[in-house]
C-alpha cells in the first residue's frame, strides 16, 4: 500500500532548535525577542513594540536546544531512525543579518554547509523551509512584509541559498504555514497589529507580497536546478460545523475558505473568486499589479506541504460554547475528541478528511511536514520515558494517512514534528515536548541539554524500517 519511495523524516526549525542567536554574524529575528509564556509571550506576539522595549528574564530561542553546536550528535542520533529526510529551516537572519545586506554572511552559509554535509554522511536529505517565522527583525523598520521591497530581499536570499545548496537540497518549502500571516501577523509577516490603521488590509498586503516572492523564488529555483521541488505549506485542519444547522455549516465552510485562501494562490496560480469578493466586501485595497498576477499564475507550487495537529470546530452561535486550544488559534471544544494539556484535540479521522480534501482541492502531491503530540513529561531514573501515549497518537495518525493513501491521495512523505524536543513556538516552553528524543532542559534553559531516546524512538524506527507496515 505504501509507495516504495515514500519518505520518512524528522523535523524541526531554526528558531526553535538552533540557539546561537548572535553567533556567526547572525542578525535578530522577532523570535529572539519573545519570552516564555510565563513572562507574557502572547502579549509580546501581539505587540511588537512592547516586545522590542521590554527586558525579559529569559529568552527561549537564544540557546534553544543548542542545535547550532550539537547538530553532529543530533544528526547521528536521528540517523539511527533510518529516516530519509530532515525537515529544518535556514534562518534568513544567519544569511542576511539585516535582511537587505549587500552581501550574504559567509559564516551563516558555512553553518548550513556543515549541517547538510553531516546529514549527507548518513544519507539524510535536508527538506528546507526558507522562511519559518524568521524574517530579519531589522526589516520591521521598513514596514515588514507590507513593504514590496521585502519581496526583492527575500528573493535575493532564496537565490543565494538555492545556488549554494543546489546539489544537496531537493525539496524546498517557501513559507512555513503561510496562513499564519493572517492569524498572527507579527510572527508571520512582521506586522505590528497595534500600529496598523487597517490591520485586515495590512495582513493581506503582507500575504500578497509573500505570495509574489514565493512564486518568484519558485521560478528562480527551477532555473538554478530543474530538479528542485518547491512547495507551499498550509497549517491544515478541517473546520467542522458544530451542528447540522445550515448556519453552522456555512460558518465552517467560510473558515475552511479562509484557511485555504493563500494556498489557493500558490497551488492554483490565482486568488479564488470568493477571496476577490472578500476583498471588495471588506474594502481591502490590495496593491497588486498585473505583472504580479502573471507571476502568481505562472510559478505555482510543485507540492503542498502541511502541518496537521487537529481539526477545528466552528459555530454560528458562539455563546456558551466551551473553547479549547489549537494550532494558530483556539477553537471550540469538540465533545467527541480528547485533548492534550494545551487543549489540542486528537483527531486521526480528521487527518484522513483533511488529506483527502487538500488533495481533491489542489491535485498536487502532499507532503506531511509536521504532525505530533505534546506532553509535559519527565524520564525515570534511567533517563527513559515510556511515552505510550505518543506512540498511540502516531500510530493512529499514520494509519489515517495510510487510509488516505488508499483513498487515492498522493503523499510524498511524513514526519513527526519536533522529533528531538525543541522550544514550543506558541508557549516558548521546553516542557511542551513533542520529541521521540528527550532533551534535558527546563523552561528556564536549566539542565545538561543531554539527549535521551524515549520509547517512541524505537517504535518509529521500526515504522521507518518496515515502510509503515509495523505500526
Ligand atoms: C506549527 C509551527 O504551527 O506548530 C511550529 O510550524 C510549531 O513551529 C508547531 O512548533 C507546534 O506548535 P507549538 O506551539 O506547540 O510549538
TrEMBL record:
Annotated Gene3D superfamilies: Glycosidases (3.20.20.80)
One Pfam short name: Glyco_hydro_1
Keywords: Glycosidase, Hydrolase
Top-rank taxon, per record: Bacteria
MF-aspect GO terms: beta-glucosidase activity
GO BP, sorted A to Z: carbohydrate catabolic process
Enzyme active site: 370 (nucleophile)
InterPro entries: GH (IPR017853), Glyco_hydro_1 (IPR001360), Glyco_hydro_1_AS (IPR018120)
Cellular component terms per the entry's GO annotation: cytosol
Record-linked PROSITE patterns: GLYCOSYL_HYDROL_F1_1
Entry similarity comment: Belongs to the glycosyl hydrolase 1 family.
Protein name, UniProt field: Amygdalase
Source organism (scientific name): Paenibacillus amylolyticus
Amino acid at each position: 500500500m505504501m509507495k516504495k519511495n515514500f519518505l520518512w523524516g524528522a523535523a524541526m526549525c531554526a528558531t526553535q532548535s538552533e540557539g546561537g542567536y548572535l553567533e556567526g554574524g547572525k542578525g535578530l529575528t522577532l523570535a529572539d525577542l519573545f519570552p516564555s509564556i510565563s513572562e507574557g509571550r502572547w502579549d509580546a506576539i501581539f505587540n511588537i513594540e512592547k516586545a522590542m522595549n521590554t527586558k525579559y528574564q529569559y529568552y527561549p530561542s537564544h540557546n534553544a536546544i543548542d542545535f547550532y553546536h550539537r547538530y553532529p550528535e543530533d544528526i547521528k542520533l536521528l540517523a539511527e531512525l533510518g529516516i530519509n529526510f530532515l525537515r529544518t529551516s535556514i534562518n534568513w537572519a544567519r544569511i542576511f543579518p539585516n535582511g537587505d545586506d549587500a552581501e550574504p554572511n559567509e559564516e551563516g552559509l558555512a553553518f548550513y554547509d556543515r549541517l547538510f554535509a553531516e546529514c549527507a554522511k548518513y544519507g539524510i536529505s535536508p527538506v528546507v523551509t526558507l522562511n519559518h517565522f524568521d524574517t530579519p527583525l531589522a526589516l520591521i523598520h521598513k514596514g515588514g512584509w507590507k513593504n514590496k521591497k521585502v519581496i526583492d530581499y527575500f528573493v535575493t536570499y532564496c537565490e543565494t541559498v538555492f545556488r549554494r545548496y543546489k546539489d544537496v537540497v531537493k525539496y524546498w518549502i517557501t513559507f512555513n504555514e503561510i496562513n499564519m500571516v493572517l492569524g498572527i501577523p507579527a510572527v508571520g509577516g512582521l506586522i505590528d497589529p497595534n500600529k496598523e490603521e487597517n490591520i485586515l488590509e495590512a495582513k493581506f498586503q503582507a500575504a500578497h507580497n509573500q505570495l509574489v516572492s514565493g512564486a518568484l523564488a519558485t521560478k528562480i529555483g527551477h532555473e538554478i536546478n530543474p530538479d528542485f521541488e518547491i512547495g507551499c505549506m498550509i497549517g491544515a485542519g478541517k473546520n467542522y460545523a458544530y451542528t447540522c444547522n445550515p448556519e453552522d455549516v456555512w460558518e465552517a465552510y467560510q473558515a475552511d475558505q479562509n484557511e485555504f485562501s493563500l494556498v489557493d494562490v500558490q497551488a492554483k496560480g490565482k486568488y479564488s473568486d470568493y477571496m476577490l469578493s472578500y476583498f471588495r466586501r471588506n474594502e481591502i485595497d490590495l496593491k497588486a499589479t498585473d505583472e504580479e498576477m502573471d507571476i502568481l499564475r505562472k510559478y505555482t507550487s510543485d507540492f503542498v506541504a502541511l502541518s496537521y495537529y487537529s481539526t477545528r470546530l466552528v459555530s454560528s452561535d458562539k455563546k456558551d460554547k466551551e473553547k479549547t486550544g489549537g494550532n494558530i488559534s483556539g477553537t471550540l471544544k469538540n465533545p467527541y475528541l480528547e485533548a492534550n494539556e494545551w487543549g489540542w484535540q486528537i483527531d486521526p479521522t480528521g487527518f484522513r478528511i483533511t488529506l483527502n480534501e487538500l488533495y481533491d482541492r489542489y491535485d498536487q502531491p502532499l507532503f506531511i511536514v509536521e504532525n505530533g503530540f505534546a506532553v509535559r513529561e519527565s524520564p525515570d531514573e534511567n533517563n527513559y520515558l515510556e511515552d505510550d501515549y505518543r506512540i498511540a497518537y502516531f500510530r493512529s495518525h499514520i494509519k489515517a494517512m495510510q487510509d488516505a493513501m488508499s483513498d487515492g491521495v498522493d503523499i510524498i512523505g511524513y514526519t513527526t514534528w519536533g522529533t528531538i524536543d525543541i522550544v514550543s513556538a506558541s508557549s516558548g516552553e521546553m516542557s511542551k515536548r513533542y520529541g521521540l528524543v528527550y532533551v534535558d532542559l527546563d523552561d528556564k534553559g536549566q539542565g545538561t541539554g543531554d539527549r535521551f531516546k524515549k520509547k517512541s524512538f524505537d517504535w518509529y524506527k521500526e515504522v521507518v524500517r518496515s515502510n509503515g507496515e509495523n505500526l
